[in-house]
Design goal:
The chain is α/β, with parallel strands linked by helices and 240 residues long. It has a single domain, classed as Rossmann fold (3-Layer(aba) Sandwich), CATH 3.40.50. Helix content is 49%, strand content 15%. The protein contains 9 helices and 7 strands. It has a 7-stranded parallel beta sheet with strand order 3-2-1-4-5-6-7, sandwiched between helices. Strand 2, helix 2 and strand 3 form a beta-alpha-beta unit. Acetoacetyl-coenzyme A binds next to helix 5 and helix 7. The site of acetoacetyl-coenzyme A has 20 residues, from helix 5 and helix 7.
Length: 240
């Protein structure tokens, strides 16, 4: 039986590339999305991958979503917590809502989804969870106290849950992408982005497929001895 994977935010950007990579690896993929029905429909038509709509910041919706995927596709073996948003602004301008929305979606979503799949993975003694962090969670970023805090939290969440899953065959890892050529990065003002790209040693933005290859490895059978780790894929922009 093919492994069943959920990719949150899986119909666009990095998530779309991850959904495709896991499908190519022979998995049955459920791509979750929150709002953009049109893009989700086009994604399903193009790829044949089923899309499921729920908001990862909503705990109950995540439990219902996981149950629905399990009922339609089978027990969930793989979770990729990719869904994320930005609400950039310096703290002088950042509203409480912009803080809370980013924390609840980017970090809260990881908890909400893990609660939906971890017990089953543990019972079946096999699971793969990959959380998408960020270079900006590792290094900080001007104008992103909300996003950097959430992504940094993801790295801690990963290491803690990895310890809980290790004996039960459930690996938990993070990937920390740098600046990738997606709608999210395209929203950064052009002059600001130019300065950021100038600091990337490889000299270009990354491609979503370059993140997806890393996810596919961490989700593979061969990845079973890798847990609690963070794979930085950032063109050399932040090395540590
Ligand atoms: N370091 C120091 N000072 C900086 C700075 C920096 N990196 N960036 C801006 N400043 C300064 C400016 O020079 C300016 O100073 P003066 O007032 O003295 O001229 C002041 O801060 C205000 O700057 P802005 O005019 O840019 O302020 P703004 O309020 O219009 O915009 C901002 C602020 C929204 C943060 C904008 O600079 C921005 O969008 N920055 C990019 C943030 C970013 O990288 N987001 C990443 C999104 S993609 C992503 O997050 C994916 C991922 O995981 C990598």
């Amino acid at each position: 039986m093919a492994r069943v994977a959920i990719v949150t935010g899986g119909t666009r950007g990095i998530g779309e590339a991850i959904s495709l990579a896991l499908k190519d690896a022979g998995m049955t993929v459920a791509a979750n999305y929150a709002g953009n029905d049109e893009r989700a429909r086009a994604f399903t038509e193009r790829t044949g991958i089923a899309a499921f709509k729920w908001d990862v910041s909503d705990y109950e919706a995540c439990q219902a979503g996981c149950a629905q995927v399990a009922e339609q596709l089978g027990p969930i073996d793989v979770l990729v917590n990719n869904a994320g948003i930005t609400r950039d602004g310096t703290i002088m301008k950042l509203s409480y809502e912009a803080w809370k929305e980013v924390i609840d979606t980017n970090l809260g979503g990881c908890f909400n989804m893990a609660k939906g799949v971890f017990p089953g993975m543990r019972d079946r003694k096999w699971g793969r969870i990959v959380n998408i962090g960020s270079i900006n969670g590792q290094a900080g970023q001007y104008g992103q106290v909300n996003y950097a805090a959430a992504k940094s939290g993801i790295h801690g969440f990963t290491k803690a849950l990895a310890q809980e899953g290790a004996r039960a065959g459930v690996t938990v890892n993070a990937i920390a992408p740098g600046y990738i050529d997606t709608d999210m990065v395209a929203a950064v003002p052009a002059d600001v982005l130019e300065k950021i790209v100038a600091k990337i040693p490889v000299g270009r933005l990354g491609q979503a497929s370059e993140i997806a290859r890393g996810v596919a490895f961490l989700c593979s059978e061969e990845g079973g001895f890798v847990t609690g780790s963070t794979l930085s894929i950032n063109g050399g922009q932040h090395m540590y």
